Amino acid sequence: MSESNAPAISNPVEYIQHHLGNMTHNGERPASLVDFSVFFVDTFVMSLILALAFAFAAWKVGKNLDPDKPTGMQNILETVVEFVNQQVKDIFPTADKWVGPLAITIFVWVALMNTMDIIPVDLIPSLVAGVAGVFGYDPHHVYWKAVPTTNLDTTFALALLVFGLIIFYNIKHKGLFGYMKVFATHPFSASNPIVKVLLFPINVVMTAIEEVAKPVSLGLRLFGNMFAGELLFLLIALLAFSYWAMPGQVVLGVLWSIFHILVILLQAFIFMLLTIVYLGLASQGTDEH
Amino acid sequence: MNVTATLIGQLIVFSILIWFIKAVLWEPVINTLEDRKKRIADGLAASEKGMKDQELAAENAKQAIKEAKQEAAEIIAQAKARDTQMIEEAKNKAVEEADRVIAGAQAEIDQEVNRAKDSLRTQVSSLAVAGASKILGKEVDANAHKAALKELIEQI
């Protein structure tokens, strides 16, 4: 680790850029902001490992549910399920068997992925680089971004599924025509037919923006928070450039880590809560508008 | 900071994870929690019912004891009444019996007297005849003096 750190610290820009680079399937960097020809292996593998860990814990607990004496992991997951279920019950207008599982998956998975931020910034990348070095790759050109939620792909994958579900729930509960009507008469409504026609294009644009803003804000909020947190960890890590700055690195690192625990859980919770709220709004009948 | 094909991979992982979590964690845990809630509610209801039952039973027991006491008092009173009645009856019967015995004895005595008188009467006539014949020195015909004898017997 000290070997790979030495040149990085001597060149802070390179150090940070290296840490913000992703491992892609072919070693190429994405050419533009949206480039579907590349695949980020690091993001996918990290999130997949965490998904599998959650799935395994869930399977293990779900298989041996003890109704009388819950212990260990069952206690934790029961608490989480109860907590999420309470949120769903408070917010969601109707009974729905998919919102709960969706919400708990978002909450736990996002929290787990965010938690990767707490792990020292150099630990996982250096580990991967070391392993890659054993297999004959140049460690300096092995990129590994350990936190999946500092990547737009992950946050937008979540947000897009939620967006799809918003549309689905809208059509399911309001009907296709009812959903269209929301676009035509919302947010400005009038009783005069001429005014109605005049307001129609404005309403369509406004509602479309409102709807699209939901997934965009969901995805960008999580991404922004986690990316900024990660960047701060990197900047704090840069304080290791000399011995006299080391105490500063330690103090700031501890403080930011502790504060970041809050951010990690809060962002996961906000993502889950907004998902329930959006789907709850989508599940209301037309007459309630 | 790019959107790439990873998005699709993440979408697939996310979708499968939701489905999996729903199947293995969410539904079993929710069922267990509901079940537990129901069982606790049932237990509380049962304990409340038990308490009410106990109260009712205590009330019933009190009532039963009260009734039994009342009955016992009644029985004792009845027994006392019957007791005095029986004594009275026995007394009456004894008096009756005594009267009867006395009357019987009296009748027997009377009968005995009459019988003694009768036998005395028959002996008196023969005695009188025998005395008279001794005095006169000759046989006396009882039939001849029938009227005189009869008069004598009548006097006894």
UniProtKB/TrEMBL annotation, chain A:
<feature type="transmembrane region" description="Helical">
    <location>
        <begin position="154"/>
        <end position="171"/>
    </location>
</feature>
<dbReference type="InterPro" id="IPR035908">
    <property type="entry name" value="F0_ATP_A_sf"/>
</dbReference>
<keyword id="KW-1133">Transmembrane helix</keyword>
<feature type="transmembrane region" description="Helical">
    <location>
        <begin position="98"/>
        <end position="116"/>
    </location>
</feature>
<dbReference type="InterPro" id="IPR000568">
    <property type="entry name" value="ATP_synth_F0_asu"/>
</dbReference>
<feature type="transmembrane region" description="Helical">
    <location>
        <begin position="258"/>
        <end position="281"/>
    </location>
</feature>
<dbReference type="InterPro" id="IPR045082">
    <property type="entry name" value="ATP_syn_F0_a_bact/chloroplast"/>
</dbReference>
<keyword id="KW-0813">Transport</keyword>
<comment type="similarity">
    <text>Belongs to the ATPase A chain family.</text>
</comment>
<feature type="transmembrane region" description="Helical">
    <location>
        <begin position="36"/>
        <end position="59"/>
    </location>
</feature>
<keyword id="KW-0066">ATP synthesis</keyword>
<dbReference type="GO" id="GO:0045259">
    <property type="term" value="C:proton-transporting ATP synthase complex"/>
</dbReference>
<dbReference type="Pfam" id="PF00119">
    <property type="entry name" value="ATP-synt_A"/>
</dbReference>
<dbReference type="InterPro" id="IPR023011">
    <property type="entry name" value="ATP_synth_F0_asu_AS"/>
</dbReference>
<dbReference type="GO" id="GO:0042777">
    <property type="term" value="P:proton motive force-driven plasma membrane ATP synthesis"/>
</dbReference>
<keyword id="KW-0375">Hydrogen ion transport</keyword>
<keyword id="KW-1003">Cell membrane</keyword>
<keyword id="KW-0138">CF(0)</keyword>
<keyword id="KW-0812">Transmembrane</keyword>
<protein>
    <recommendedName>
        <fullName>ATP synthase subunit a</fullName>
    </recommendedName>
</protein>
<dbReference type="GO" id="GO:0046933">
    <property type="term" value="F:proton-transporting ATP synthase activity, rotational mechanism"/>
</dbReference>
<dbReference type="GO" id="GO:0005886">
    <property type="term" value="C:plasma membrane"/>
</dbReference>
TrEMBL record, chain B:
<keyword id="KW-0997">Cell inner membrane</keyword>
<comment type="function">
    <text>F(1)F(0) ATP synthase produces ATP from ADP in the presence of a proton or sodium gradient. F-type ATPases consist of two structural domains, F(1) containing the extramembraneous catalytic core and F(0) containing the membrane proton channel, linked together by a central stalk and a peripheral stalk. During catalysis, ATP synthesis in the catalytic domain of F(1) is coupled via a rotary mechanism of the central stalk subunits to proton translocation.</text>
</comment>
<dbReference type="InterPro" id="IPR005864">
    <property type="entry name" value="ATP_synth_F0_bsu_bac"/>
</dbReference>
<comment type="similarity">
    <text>Belongs to the ATPase B chain family.</text>
</comment>
<comment type="function">
    <text>Component of the F(0) channel, it forms part of the peripheral stalk, linking F(1) to F(0). The b'-subunit is a diverged and duplicated form of b found in plants and photosynthetic bacteria.</text>
</comment>
<dbReference type="InterPro" id="IPR028987">
    <property type="entry name" value="ATP_synth_B-like_membr_sf"/>
</dbReference>
<dbReference type="GO" id="GO:0045259">
    <property type="term" value="C:proton-transporting ATP synthase complex"/>
</dbReference>
<feature type="coiled-coil region">
    <location>
        <begin position="51"/>
        <end position="115"/>
    </location>
</feature>
<dbReference type="GO" id="GO:0046933">
    <property type="term" value="F:proton-transporting ATP synthase activity, rotational mechanism"/>
</dbReference>
<feature type="transmembrane region" description="Helical">
    <location>
        <begin position="6"/>
        <end position="29"/>
    </location>
</feature>
<keyword id="KW-0066">ATP synthesis</keyword>
<comment type="subunit">
    <text>F-type ATPases have 2 components, F(1) - the catalytic core - and F(0) - the membrane proton channel. F(1) has five subunits: alpha(3), beta(3), gamma(1), delta(1), epsilon(1). F(0) has three main subunits: a(1), b(2) and c(10-14). The alpha and beta chains form an alternating ring which encloses part of the gamma chain. F(1) is attached to F(0) by a central stalk formed by the gamma and epsilon chains, while a peripheral stalk is formed by the delta and b chains.</text>
</comment>
<keyword id="KW-0812">Transmembrane</keyword>
<dbReference type="GO" id="GO:0046961">
    <property type="term" value="F:proton-transporting ATPase activity, rotational mechanism"/>
</dbReference>
<dbReference type="GO" id="GO:0012505">
    <property type="term" value="C:endomembrane system"/>
</dbReference>
<protein>
    <recommendedName>
        <fullName>ATP synthase subunit b</fullName>
    </recommendedName>
</protein>
<dbReference type="GO" id="GO:0005886">
    <property type="term" value="C:plasma membrane"/>
</dbReference>
<dbReference type="InterPro" id="IPR002146">
    <property type="entry name" value="ATP_synth_b/b'su_bac/chlpt"/>
</dbReference>
<keyword id="KW-0813">Transport</keyword>
<keyword id="KW-0406">Ion transport</keyword>
<keyword id="KW-0472">Membrane</keyword>
<keyword id="KW-1003">Cell membrane</keyword>
